[in-house]
Amino acid sequence: MGLRAREVMGMSGEMEKPDVNEEQMDIAQRIEQAFTDSYKQDVKNGIVPWADASRIIEYMEYMAQEGLDSENLIEYLAKRSGIDLDAFKQMWAKLTDEQKEDLLNEIAHNIAFDGFTGLIKAIVDDLNRQKKYRKDRGKVLKYALYYICDDDSVDYDGLEDVIISVFWPENKKKKDEEAYEDFVRGLELAKYLDEETVKEAITTYLVFGIAESC
Asked: What do you get for the CA distance between the two ends of the chain, in Å?
C-alpha cells in the first residue's frame, strides 16, 4: 500500500485556491519560518526531534478540530512562533481559511520531515557504530531496497516492522516504554509526507548511510 500524505486540516491541496496578495504571502511565510525555526532551536537545545515533532503535530491536529480561529490554536501557534499574541491575531485574521489550512499543513510537513530524517539518521548511526546492531545492517538494508524499488512484497509498513524488530525486541519494550513509543511515533511521521519524499529520505539517509559504512 502506498503512502498518502496526511494533512492536519482536510485536503485543502485539492481545492481551487483564491488569489493571494503579497501581504498574505508574507504573513504565511513569516509564521511558517518562525514556527519551524522555533522547533529547530528546540532540537539544538537537546529535545528528541522525532518525539517533539510528533507531539507538536498531534497537538495542532487536536486544537484545529476546534476551528481555525479557536483561541487555543491561535495562542499555541503564537507561542511556538515567538510572535506577540496580539500581533499574531492581527496577522492570522488577514488569512483566508484556505490559507490557514495550507499553512498548518506546511508546518506539519516541515516538522515531520525534520523529525523523520532525524530518526533515520540516528538509526543508521546505531547500526553502523553499535556492535550489537551491526549484524542486522544487511537485513535492514535489504528491506529498505525492496521498499524503494517498489517490490510488492515490502511496503513502508513492512520496512517499519523490520526496523522496530531490530531495535525493540519484546524484552526491551517493557524496560523503556516511553522511548519505544517515541521511536514508533517517529517512524510514523512518514504519514505526513508523500511517498516520493519518504523514499528519497530512505534512499539518502538509510540506504546510502549503511552502504557507505559497509
From this structure: 30
pTM: 0.90
Dist CA 2 CA 202 (whole Å): 15
- Please give the grid coordinates belonging to residue 123: 538509526
Q: How far is CA 179 from the centre of its chain?
A: 17
The span from the CA of 111 to the CA of 114, in Å, is: 5
How do residues 94-150 score in pLDDT, each as one tens digit? Answer: 999 999 999 999 999 999 999 999 999 999 999 999 999 999 999 999 999 999 998
* Buried/exposed 46-58: b ≥16 CB within 10 Å, e otherwise: eebbbbbbbebbe
Cα–Cα distance, 214 to 208 (Å, whole number):
10
Continuous H helices in 48-194 = 49-64, 71-81, 85-93, 97-129, 131-134, 137-148, 156-167, 170-175, 177-187
Contact in structure between 137 and 180 (CB atoms under 8 Å): no
Angle, CA of 210, 128 and 155, to the nearest 5°: 45
Closest CA to 201 of 92, 88, 113, 93: 113
Q: How far apart are CA 102 and CA 48, in angstroms?
A: 26
